[in-house]
Amino acid sequence: MRKYFALGALALLALPAIACDQCGCGLLLGVQPKDHANNFGLQWRMRYLRGDLLVPGDAMPVLKHGGHDHDGDDNAAATYREAYNVLEARGQVWLTDRASLTASIPLLHNFQSVGGVRQADVYGVGDPVLLARYAVLASLSGPDTTRLRHRLTVGMGLKVPLGRTNVVQDGEELDHDLQPGTGTWDLLLSLEYTLRGKSWGLALATLGRYNGEGADGFRMGHSASATAELFRVVPHKRVTWVPSAGAYAEAALPDAQDGVSDPATGGKVLFSHLGLRVWWKNLGLACTWQHALVNDQGAMMVPNRERFIAGITYSFDQD
Length: 319
What we know:
The chain is mostly beta strands. It has a single domain, classed as Autotransporter beta-domain (Lipocalin, Beta Barrel), CATH 2.40.128.130. The protein has 1 helix and 19 strands. The chain has one helix at about 5-10, and strands at about 40-55, 75-95, 100-115, 115-125, 130-140, 150-160, 170, 170-175, 185-195, 200-210, 220, 225-230, 235, 240-250, 255, 260, 265-280, 285-295, 305-315. The protein is globular and about 60 Å long.
């Protein structure tokens, strides 16, 4: 099966992070140096948000990502800056030729400042994720030929509420989005499709998350993400380069408290996408840059600016 690794590995090109980065439940599988080979990897993700939020003065304390003291009823603007860093350890085990199981656990650093004043600076263990995937349709036409090959993969997973949800800083409990964990059991569903010729290919993926309700009655909005990539495979001696370009999008329904939706939350974001994967022997390296093009979100949501992803994966040979 090793000679077929390219198709299976490239089928993972488009798998997006499970939204959202800031709540520490992301899982980006990345590209495997070999198909049907167990592997272990580390990945770093960073999402940067920045924007001036203009709201009535008496509403400043209840902004989505924290409060800002303000006296009076006049409208006031404050510059919000947020950075969500995730260092994730994950491993993948193949159970059969078509079925695999992936597990991950994230370490988080969530930061927020309002008007240049730090409001949150949190380190912690996030919520682990388990994801089972199965290739329902897969071409096995051998190594690079002129024949088109494709693969359709479905997946189902679970996010386990292990991260803390009650972190307090400066005497106040932080907003849900800034906590290391979510406190909820969430269902994950994925669908991926890859079409590839000799050197060029197209990868499409969607990923949805159905969120549970926490003990305090809060539920993050159900969300979905999608990636479309055009990629090219460039072998050079013992190294294979795979540059890619495309788009990444996220959409989320409003958050809810005790079953009542908050119309100032949720929304849609569209990012451009540039990526590069490099394979050498059993080692795979990957980096991705995504720039926000459209922020169509609720009034209390800080606009997205950039996402960066970098990872390293080691694949173990199989008999």
